[in-house]
């Protein structure tokens, strides 16, 4: 009887890590780890009025909403890479350096992009999702959206977030 109890205890302990993962949802249940780098912005519309402050605010709201949207629903788990210089930025670093920082942070996907206001009516949002392990681009899209209002930016962010959420699991 003592041998049976010892064997059962050994078997249970060997299964303990699996039980812990089942309780906390495990990595798959939490979703793929994604690092979202703050998007860059450029305005070549030639408008006379200086809108830099408005665009900076809208870009910050856009990025925060994108991160929040991707973190909802459990498909993605947000991770924050650490870059030098901080924060991670395409303007301040190379894609390979940001990719390495994302890998070190435990990300499976790196999301980078930027928005370009080309005219008073049209803006482009370029988005790339990169598989951190292979370096392969799994999403490369150019989205256009009309208008330069809070509502136009919100709709663009919601659409882009939905497109990214449709990516197959990595």
Structural overview:
The chain is of the alpha/beta class and 170 residues long. The chain is 44% helix and 25% strand. It has helices at 2-24, 26-30, 52-71, 95-104, 150-165, and strands at residues 32-36, 40-43, 76-79, 109-117, 122-131, 137-146. Strands 1, 2, 3, 4, 5 and 6 form a six-stranded mixed sheet that branches. A hairpin with a 4-residue loop joins strand 4 (109-117) and strand 5 (122-131). The radius of gyration is 21 Å and the shape is globular. The protein starts with a helix and ends in a 5-residue tail after the last helix.
Write the layout of secondary structure elements.
Blueprint: H1 2-24, H2 26-30, E1 32-36, E2 40-43, H3 52-71, E3 76-79, H4 95-104, E4 109-117, E5 122-131, E6 137-146, H5 150-165
Parallel strand pairs: 1-3, 1-4, 2-4
Antiparallel strand pairs: 4-5, 5-6
Largest sheet properties: 6 strands, mixed
Q: What is the ordering of alpha helices and beta strands?
A: HHEEHEHEEEH
**Range of helix content:** 40-55%
Low-confidence residue ranges? 1-29
- Oligomerization category of the chains in this entry: single chain
Radius of gyration: 21 Å
What's the total number of strands? 6
**What is the percentage of strand-forming residues?**
15-25%
Ends: how far apart?
Answer: 47 Å
Overall, the morphology is: globular
Average pLDDT taken over every residue = 83
Class from secondary-structure proportions:
alpha/beta
Tally the helices: what do you get? 5
């Amino acid at each position: 009887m003592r041998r049976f109890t010892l064997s059962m205890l050994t078997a249970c302990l060997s299964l303990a890590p699996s039980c812990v993962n089942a309780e906390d949802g495990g990595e798959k249940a939490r979703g793929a780890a994604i690092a979202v780098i703050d998007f860059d912005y450029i305005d070549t519309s030639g408008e006379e009025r200086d809108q830099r402050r408005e665009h900076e605010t809208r870009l910050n709201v856009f990025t925060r909403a994108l991160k929040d949207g991707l973190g909802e629903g459990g498909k993605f788990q947000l991770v924050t890479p650490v870059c030098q210089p901080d924060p991670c930025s395409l303007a301040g670093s190379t894609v390979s350096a940001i990719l390495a920082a994302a890998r070190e942070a435990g990300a499976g996907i790196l999301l980078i992009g930027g928005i370009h206001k080309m005219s008073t009516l049209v803006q482009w949002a370029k988005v790339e999702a990169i598989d951190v392990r292979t370096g392969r681009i799994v999403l490369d899209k150019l989205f256009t959206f009309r208008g330069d209002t809070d509502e136009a930016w919100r709709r663009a962010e919601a659409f882009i977030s939905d497109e990214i959420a449709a990516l197959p699991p990595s």
